[in-house]
């Protein structure tokens, strides 16, 4: 019996060592820069300098001379737009952005060809398509709902930087900031074109809030696997909400 008791101390020490070894230590990653969090593309705004007179003045007046004068002025800004890199917070929009840019250039090439051919109906048709595709790019960059973007500002760093780097201090801060942003999102109303999806929106926002609460709970006694799973749950809920705006449905 005495020998058995003598073994208890070393065994307990070994067990505690193994348990502590399973808990991954917190990492440390740099803060996400303000530029990476800013959903702006100045090169897209530069295109608007010429789009405004084309769409609001020349097009409705069928002023073909003005259209002819404006078309070559677009080329430098479209070249700059083609070369731009999206800020990090828009990285999940890259595929749609690339497709939109390509379609915009195709429409512009059609407009340019119509001008060169003196095809007035073609000029009007391509000008309308050109403007529509430009507005599509603007929607990619512009946050669909300020209250959702307030959550995304913190989720971006959490999902792409702090979580992968397992920086518990920054993970906790991001979770706290997201939790503070959830009540305003719960009160938000969708724009009229998406009013039919308000019920689904509210349901998924509730799921997002629960997922954020789940992350805060596991952070009381964190393990890497549980923290990663909780962050993934938040990201999945956010993507479903964002899908309401990008797809116009939840099916």
Description:
With 251 residues, the chain is mainly α. The protein has two domains: 36-141, Cytochrome c/b562 (Four Helix Bundle (Hemerythrin (Met), subunit A)); 144-247, Four Helix Bundle (Hemerythrin (Met), subunit A) (Up-down Bundle), CATH 1.20.120.290. Helices cover 77% and strands 0% of the residues. The chain is built from ten helices and no strands. The protein has helices spanning 2-22, 34-37, 42-61, 64-83, 94-117, 120-141, 146-162, 168-187, 198-218, 224-247. Helix 5 (94-117) packs antiparallel against helix 6. The N and C termini lie far apart (67 Å). The model is unreliable at 6-21 (pLDDT under 50).
Count of discrete alpha- or pi-helical segments spanning 4 or more residues: 10
CATH class of the largest domain: Mainly Alpha
Strand residue content: under 5%
Question: Mind telling me the CATH superfamily name of the largest domain?
Answer: Cytochrome c/b562
Largest sheet: none
The assigned structural class equals mainly alpha
Overall pLDDT level = 89
**Roughly how many Å is the radius of gyration?**
26 Å
> Cα distance, first to last residue?
67 Å
- Indicate the CATH topology of the largest domain: Four Helix Bundle (Hemerythrin (Met), subunit A)
| Reported CATH architecture of the largest domain | Up-down Bundle
Can you count the beta strands? Answer: 0
